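Input record (one chain):
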Amino acid sequence: MRACGVRFNVRRMETTADSTPRRRTAAAAGLALIAIALLGALPTAPASAHRTTVKGFFGCSDRGAFSRLRGMNVELWKRGPSIFPVEMVGTQVERQYTRPNGSFRFRTEAAEEEYFVRMALRDADGVHLRDFWGVNDWSVDSPDFRNSVARRQLGLRVFAKPGVSHKCAIWAAASAANRDYKVVTGRELPSRGVEIRADAVTAGVPLTPGTSIFWPGDYPAGNAGPGDDATVRHEFGHVIRHGLDGSIAHFLTDVARFNYLQFHNPCLQTNLGFAFNEGWAQYWAKRFTGAPDCGRPGDMTTEGNVAAALTALAANCAGGSRALMVDVLRRNPGTIHSFFEFRDRLGCPVPGVVPVTVIPGEATELPPPPPRPKARGGFARDVVRAASGQIGELRRRLKEAVGRAKEPPPCFRNSCTKALRVRVRPATLAFELRLARIQRAAAAPFDSAREQRRLARLGTAKLRRVQARRLAKTRRQVVGVAIAGVSATLRAARPVLRRDSSRYAKRIRGALAGALARFRRAKRNGAKALPASLALSPPATRWPRRAPRDPRTPPPAPISPPALVPVSPPTEEPRKSTLTIDQCPAEVVTPKPIEVAGSLSPAAAGSPVAVTFDYPKDDPVTKTVTTGADGSWSADHTPNPNYVGTWTVTAHFAGDATRLPATAPTCATEHEPD
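The corresponding structure, as predicted from the sequence alone:
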């Protein structure tokens, strides 16, 4: 700002009355010109300019198990003039993704500036994590540093939360699952990435509506202890299945049809659609301890049995290729909602030489109890409290800044920067105050048990719509506040900038004008993509402390799924079986049950038959019955009195070592009111 000071001093010399004769002033000016010429002839030192190599590592601790954060978005930012918030004048110098060992390496520009490093839980393939109420991906900025040294080593920074899975562990597991999917299939996900919404409103357990993963706060990445990520891989299996099955509208139809929104475990018996949806996810995660068997061998309304059957099917008919299994879903969108439908569409393109079966593992993994609504509201409450503290401090500083701005210092010599700072300080503090209020308002609707219960009762479809509207509104508010803040700052700075033609002043004017243009473009685009500078980190988060280079944490013990064991081929080929529904009433009057009966041949006592009663406006109800020694079976179901109209009944036999599967022709009955 020396140019600013010189210019103002010259003007002051020209306009200030002085008793010295004009010729003496002219003589002094002549001597000054001679001195400047002599000084210009002397050799001068080059202007100070530095380039700094910035290096560091990122790690993550999952309940004490340490790992390096691979493929995570890292950015080097130049803060710009420190009298302005980085959201206004900050510049992204470079962006990269951490190497497999979690390292990053940047080179700063050749100018003495303040820099910082920004990390974000996002990878190059679109796997990213944001808080349920957040407006951008979860991110944290490092403290500022200057590029005044050749090397700046930030060391190893480990994100951790004692006793629970940090958000970094959830993101890292999903990112690794996506890399594995690409290697296995050679394709991208249909969703082109995965969005994880952390601290999400759910019933307390992870939920994957469509292709977005809702993850409740502090829920572990896996149930088998530190470092286990089976639950994340299970939810990723849902992302594959839902993305290949159809649109979000199709998914919501299946939610109502098969009652997807319920607690479950490998041995839970439900219906064919629910069991296949969960069984596929368990098959993909390679974790279904307790199955097959669960006391119901061959029952495909038991999700663990479905997972085991898919595992055996891949080994016996797909050469162990998970890619072929995925292709079955890809080629048949919207039509596969049971193990039998999947099996029939796969066929047996790569039959195994020696048949294998799956033997059950020990059911040692117990899922944790879901956090109660009060605990779930606590995650948002932490953000609200931190934002409230930040708002109080900003209000105090704003009040002081307004008082100082009433009598700004004059712009003499090197004091132009101070004058500019005093003039713009109220506008920049008001900008930061408005952003903090937006953050608090975004988290406030989630910060109590009552609100958590109310939102959870909305249902998946309505909750998604409410969240989408809320996010769009918050982003519009952020962009609007940014436009107003930069405009107010420009107005406050204009009296100084108008009189100053120095390079520094031109740079400030250009930076603010550029920020204003970016925010206005975002407003025209509906604020769908916020400018990169507007990364609003939760006020409760902090840059992690420096950790030892190699934390000594033992790797988690590997846990294998139930084993694949070769079995001897049967001495004779399985025989064709026939399943019939012989008794099916033409109509049933409330409150009588629908009673059906049939037979299976060849007969064998105790053969399981899955009988499904289906009504278009209700979830299918499947009951598994067993045959008598003569192959006869019977089943009944009492319909809801309000569900009048046509009901359909189907029956299926899954087959066994001596008999092939069979499905009975569908029967229909009319349910009439009394």
